Amino acid sequence: MAMVIALAIGLVGVFAIRVLLGTYTVAIPDFFSILAGHSIPGAAGAKFIVLQDKLPHAVLGTLAGLAFGCSGAIFQLLLRNPLASPDIIGINTSASLGAVVAVSMFGAAGTGMATGGLIGAVACVAVIFGLSAQRESMVGNRFILIGLGISVLAVALTNYLLSRVNIYKAADAAIWLTGSLGSASWQRISVLGLVLVVVLPLIALFSRNLHALEVGDEMASGLGVPVASTRWLYVVLAVLLVAFAVAMTGPITFVAFVSGPIARKCVGGKHSLTASALIGAIIVVLADFVAANLIPGGRLPVGVVTGIVGAPILLWLVAAAQKERS
Amino acid sequence: MTATQAPTMTSTSKPAQSLRLCAESLTLNYGGRNIVENLDFEVPSGQVTAIIGPNGCGKSTLLRGFSRLLKPAGGRVHLDSKDVSKYGSRDFARRVGLLPQHPIAPDGITVADLVSRGRYPYQGMFSKASREDDAAVAWALEATHTEQLADVPVAELSGGQRQRVWIAMSLAQETDVLLLDEPTTYLDLAHQVDLLDLVVRLNRSRGTTMLLVLHELNLAARCADHLVAMKDGQIKMSGAPSEVLTRDNLAEVFGLDAVVSPDASGSPIVVPSPRKEML
């Protein structure tokens, strides 16, 4: 529990760093007076920069990070495999495909593109389940391998479509595809915030059942856990989280994947979902701070930073898992 | 290694009720094939019963039927003359416990934490562990001699310790019937004996009805009050170990040519006949 509180404080810390520091620094008193609706004398642009840039980035980053971290941990727990995170089993790439289909075939932009991403993510899960549900259990490598296959297909189709649309649309889509908080707006924040307000309490409510599944389906049902309904409930909740987060920010890679294992290292089995959500949020906000300030005068999409940091962690986890087995 | 007498325990558990668990013309279907067909059997209440039989005879499947993991394709399973499917899942889990063949030890949790998960059927969605929960966990750890391991991560246990901890988890469930699917797999002989003695001791001290699937015939004869021999999804014979483990029965059920002789306590010992080319 102490660790969870420490992580929460850490999140507040990186949130403050994102909002106050960087190439444009804001003093704490000024920040609060801007929040209260006042302009800062002598710095007319400050209000705009805080309210339309820094604050939306930090808030959307936090919400998306919470969603990625939590859904990743749920998938990993349900499938009992650290590789089972949404960014590995094709949910992210399918969301990208959905977004690009919306852009190239329906001329969508902004919200339309996000809706396409949402549909892509949900469709991906439906296909994986359709193909793997012929077997009774949804545990195991079968699910992950099908997801990997879908992921490769989605990437190929996305690239094909991108090469067919006009260059401006392709550039627009490419930014979303790397995962970016650049399009953060209060409208997007309120959509994702609403989803989290509904979904996170439900996740907490039945988490005893979810954790009871950790001992294996047979043991769990011997304990009286409603195994099948618990699985379905959590798959739906986790998909809602990741699908809406991807729709709002684009697929910020590796956050869902690394948060769960880091959380387990920090807090062990208990509270691992909460810890994973907090770690996801810390990673996204911190990565976005780096992305916004790394190149003077320029900006990287946050997904570039999480990818660069996350990929080595993936390799390290695979190597560590191999070592444990041998 | 083996504890031959019941240790004095400081914690106690509520005694098991004697419940009738029985299968009536039960057919169990797995992967489109009938594994158990039209089987009638009443689990002897308050006793230790071992199911033996060759690989693929339906032993584990029968256990899965009793534990509601498999829905009957025909016939029914009754607990106290009520169909088991009519029980609520927690209600059933307070009466009948199951230790499957391959339970999974979650990452990063301690023995005490794992054993306390056996209290799941007694806890509401928001309730914290009650005094009864704590007492049952303490008793389960003590009864299985794992109380010194309480704070050790499950991942660091040896095979024998781990199996005891799983039993402790099932004990914390305080059920009247406990179903154990090959609980001695992967254990060396001393730990197998140790574990089965624990099962018998718990049966004697608490009255828990024990139903085990076992491969090792001599150990089955040693621990069980009642043996059930299965072949091709049917019960071929059932009774006291000395009645079931006979030369003729072994030939019929296992296709095994073996000599059966009584050990010092009178329970039968099965010794396969010497290899032919050695004669």
UniProtKB/TrEMBL annotation, chain B:
Q: Which InterPro entries match?
A: AAA+_ATPase, ABC_transporter-like_ATP-bd, ABC_transporter-like_CS, P-loop_NTPase, Siderophore_ABC-ATPase
Q: Taking every annotated instance into account, which residue ranges of this chain make up the domain ABC transporter?
A: 21-257
Question: What subcellular compartments does it reside in?
Answer: Cell membrane
- Protein topology in the membrane: Peripheral membrane protein
Lineage, top-rank taxon, reads Bacteria
Q: Return one Gene Ontology term, BP aspect.
A: iron ion transport
Membrane in keyword set = yes
What is the designated name of this protein?
ATP-binding cassette domain-containing protein
Q: Which organism is it from?
A: Rothia koreensis
